[in-house]
Amino acid sequence: MSSPPLVRPLTVIRPRGARTLVGWAELWAYRDLVYFLTWRDIKVRYKQTALGAAWAVLQPVLTMVVFSIFFGRLAGVPSEGVPYPVFAYTALVPWTFFANAVTQASNSLVAQEAMLTKVYFPRLIVPLAAVLAGLVDVSIAFVVLVGLMLAYGTVPTVAILALPLLVVFAAITALAVGLWLSALNVRYRDVRYTLPFIVQLWLFASPVAYPSSLVPEAWRPLYGVNPMVGVVDGFRWALLGGTESPGSAFLVSVAAVVALLVGGLAYFRRMERSFADAV
Amino acid sequence: MPSSGGSVALRVNGLGKRYELGERESYVALRDVISRAVKRPLVRSRRRRAVGDSVFWALRDVSFEVPHGEALAIVGRNGAGKSTLLKILTRITEPTEGEAVVAGRVGALLEVGTGFHPELTGRENVTLNGAILGMRRQEIQAKFDEIVDFAGVERFVDTPVKRYSSGMRARLAFAVAAFLETDILVVDEVLAVGDAEFQKKCMGKMGDAADGGRTVLFVSHNMTAVESLCKRAVWLDGGRVVADGPTPDVVGRYLSTSFSALSERSWPELESAPGNDAVRVRRAAVRPEYGSPSDPIDVRTPVALEFEYWNLRPNALLNLSVHIYNAQGVLVFNALPYLEKVWQGRPFPRGLYRDTCHIPGDLLNDGTYRVELMVVEGSRAIYKQDEILVFEVRDDPHSRDGWFGSWEGAVRPQLSWETEQLVDENVTVGLHVD
């Protein structure tokens, strides 16, 4: 065994040690753990479910079929000049990612109880990895989207170049919500039971099955406080082009995500200290 | 910044950790918080009471320094604060007061097996576990073969860990942690893992770490291991440092005093004695068969366990049931008085009784034992008290025949042996030559 490094950085352990919002240096030092935890989450998920990777496709596709029949065909919900299935699926890609990532992230700390009580590492990595693992599903779901757009002859515009940024935006949104819920879940164990309900309500509060133009103009900025309004409108704008570019509601959503993220990080930081005692 | 040998690796200054009662036991339901917020007036009175009654210091005013390269043992009874101290030093939990300054990377061998995922293969788990412990990818790759070899699981690296035996799993986890290059290695009770050969490997690895200039903090109930590995020991009791000095002194004091506290207990007041409406315990004691509860017990000593109890109901059909657990939590045996000649099977009139259980010498191995008392009526336990007594069985140096490692096994009976020579090689050789 080689000798230990000569320069030993000093670590001071004291009450309320962490004062910054994010320990960037530490997070960087543990970047391999982010990678491995993400990779493990993906691997385990696909190993354990009978449907494996097909699930990533089936979930949004089946929802799209149901929405198309009931909202598109029967209820006659407008779809801004785009075939309703494409219209719905474009929104279901980020929505399914968001719903799964938030659910996984919220339960992540409680599920990693054994690790939290035995080993130190930046706790932020746990919900972060849960969100990142969900991105694999997004890329699989995109393949279907391309097929669907080809089938309906929908041509994207230059706006599609903004798509990577919008995926990042969706991931940050999921992380911001996941941070709050994962920390709350450690402390209040009934959070996990309310989660499916919250996600369900959230779906109908977001323009997934319907266009946000259905919301009266005057209410749009307020509507944008729901960050998924910005995410979904952004995805539609980037992929389907024809719809109007996201306006004030989108900017409100971005501001809402920033506030949610900063608050989430601060809350997570504060709760982090007692995770090992509470889990 | 200290960076050379001879400097301080760890400085602990006035460290304390407070738990609010309930915080450790259970989590809160959001529903309760909300409903409590609705009934505002009640909240305040409950809060005040909580602060007064239910604060518990797991650690208080703990200060010590460890020079770089020293192996320090931390000894103390269960609940003395050892684990809390290690959790603070490994940054799993934050202290409530005081501070600790740590020079370099801290690695922990706390209850190994953490972070293993059953669905992943041995190879995948080694990589993941290394990353959890703070290793970089290249570092894990470079040591992979050594780790697998040390754990002795070469043939199963690509098998999911769920098919491993618990021993294999623990060995692999230990190996990952043992190969982590840290300046300070924290070891908590790993010697309970694996067979004798693997334990020897572990001890060797920890010895190497200390010799190689790494600082080792070692927590164990195995005093033989503590004494052979560490020159200095800190004894914690009730969250405070009771003694800090050369290991033989500290361990000697620890063994002689901390266990006598639970080798005899009595509850003279009937009302406040442990028990219920049916039975109440008056006294419990463990002593050498021909001695008193304060006398030492070693592996050769016959031991008597005494229980005095009040039977509060007429004509109860009572039986005691005694469980003896060792430090690893293994149930060594369960004893019942069914061979007792006078009262067995007879209804007990109300009154005070004493049961004595005789444990022969040369049966228990050295170590700490926990006694659990159960009072049984028919086949139903009507009263149970865990840890009613705790006692230490010391080693007897004369019965070891030159072997200094830990003596394996839950029990250590003196068994009779015979050796017979079946073939005399000299005679056989002679025959062939002829």
TrEMBL record, chain A:
The record places domain ABC transmembrane type-2 at 51-271
Listed PROSITE patterns: ABC_TM2
How does the protein associate with the membrane? Multi-pass membrane protein
Q: Name one GO biological process term.
A: lipopolysaccharide transport
The UniProt record lists the keyword Endoplasmic reticulum: no
This entry carries the following GO cellular component terms, namely: plasma membrane
The Gene Ontology terms for molecular function here are:
ABC-type transporter activity
**In which domain of life is the source organism classified?**
Bacteria
The compartments listed are:
Cell inner membrane; Cell membrane
InterPro entries hit by this protein? ABC2_TM, ABC2_TM_bact-type
- Membrane-spanning ranges: 50-72, 84-103, 124-152, 158-181, 193-210, 249-268
Q: Which family does it belong to?
A: Belongs to the ABC-2 integral membrane protein family.
Descriptive protein name: Transport permease protein
Q: Which organism is it from?
A: Geodermatophilus amargosae
Q: Tell me the organism's taxonomic lineage.
A: Bacteria, Bacillati, Actinomycetota, Actinomycetes, Geodermatophilales
Automatic annotation (TrEMBL), chain B:
Query: What PROSITE patterns does the database record attribute to this sequence?
Result: ABC_TRANSPORTER_1, ABC_TRANSPORTER_2
Q: Which keywords has UniProt assigned to this entry?
A: ATP-binding, Nucleotide-binding, Transport
What Pfam families is this protein classified in?
ABC_tran (PF00005)
**GO MF terms on file?**
ABC-type transporter activity; ATP binding; ATP hydrolysis activity
Occurrences of domain ABC transporter (ranges): 43-263
User: Which SMART domains does the record associate with it?
Assistant: AAA
Statement: the UniProt record of this protein carries the keyword Nucleotide-binding: yes
- One cellular component (GO) term of this entry: membrane
What superkingdom does the record give? Bacteria
Has keyword Glycosyltransferase?
no
Stored InterPro entries: AAA+_ATPase, ABC_transporter-like_ATP-bd, ABC_transporter-like_CS, ABC_transpr_TagH-like, Bact_Polysacc_Export_ATP-bd, P-loop_NTPase, Wzt_C
Of which family is this protein a member? Belongs to the ABC transporter superfamily.
Protein name, entry field: Lipopolysaccharide transport system ATP-binding protein
Q: Which organism is the protein's source?
A: Geodermatophilus amargosae
